[in-house]
Design goal:
This protein is an alpha/beta fold. The protein has one domain: Rossmann fold. Helix content is 32%, strand content 31%. The protein has 6 helices and 13 strands. The strands form 3 sheets. Strands 1, 4, 5, 6, 7, 8, 9, 10 and 11 form a 9-stranded mixed beta sheet that branches. Helix 4 links the parallel strand 9 and strand 10. It starts with 11 loop residues before the first strand and ends with a helix. The chain binds uracil.
Length: 214
Amino acid sequence: MSRLQPNTTPATVVDHPLAASMLAALRDATTPPPMFRLLAKRLALVLCLEATRSVPTSSYQVETPLGMTTGQRLAKPLVAVPVLRAGLGMLEAVTELFPDVTVGYVGLERDHATFEPSLYYSKLPPLEDRAVLLLDPMLATGASAAAACGSLVAAGADDITLLSVVSAPEGIRHLHECHPTVRIVTASVDEGLNQHAYIVPGLGDFGDRLFGTL
Ligand code: URA
C-alpha cells in the first residue's frame, strides 16, 4: 500500500505481556538509569519489530544444506532518526535488528513557557524511497514530533513511522492532523498531559531518566 495514502489508524498500540512488564518497570520512579537504559532498548526492540511489519520484501533463492527454498529480504532501505536526546535510548535497538540501517539525527528543543519546539540540529541521510523510523519516546503535545516529521518530509521522506514508548491522546491527534500519513507505534496511550505538558501517568522526563540528569 502506498504510504502517501492518509493513515486511518492514528496509532498502533503494541499489546504484548513482555512490552507491558518492561513499560511498568520504566514507569517506576525507583528504576535507576542503567536499568532504565536496558529496558528502553528492549522495549524499543519490540516497537521496532511492530513498526517494520509492513516493510516490503522481495524473494530470492536460498540453498539450504538439503535443497533450495525461497527466502525474503527487505526491499526498502531503512533509516533511523532519533530525536535528540531521548531518542538515542531507542537507537541501538534499531541498529542491532537492522545493521544496514542508515542513521540521521534531529535536535529539537522545546521552549519551557510555550512548549513550542525549535530545530537546533539536523543531519539526515537520503530519505527518498526509504522507510524512515523516527525515534521519539514521549509523544506529548505532538509539537516536536510534528516538527521532526516536517523536517523529514522537507528532506524527501514519504514513508515515516514514529516509534514512541508512551503517547498522549493530544499528541496522537496533533501529529495525525499535521501529518496524516505518518504511522505511530507506541507501547501505551496514557491519560493526557499535565500543565507542564508532561504525560500523565507517563514516566517523567525520558532523557533525564535515561542519562541520569535528574
Ligand atoms: N517528554 C518527556 O520526557 N516526558 C514527558 O512526559 C513529556 C515529554
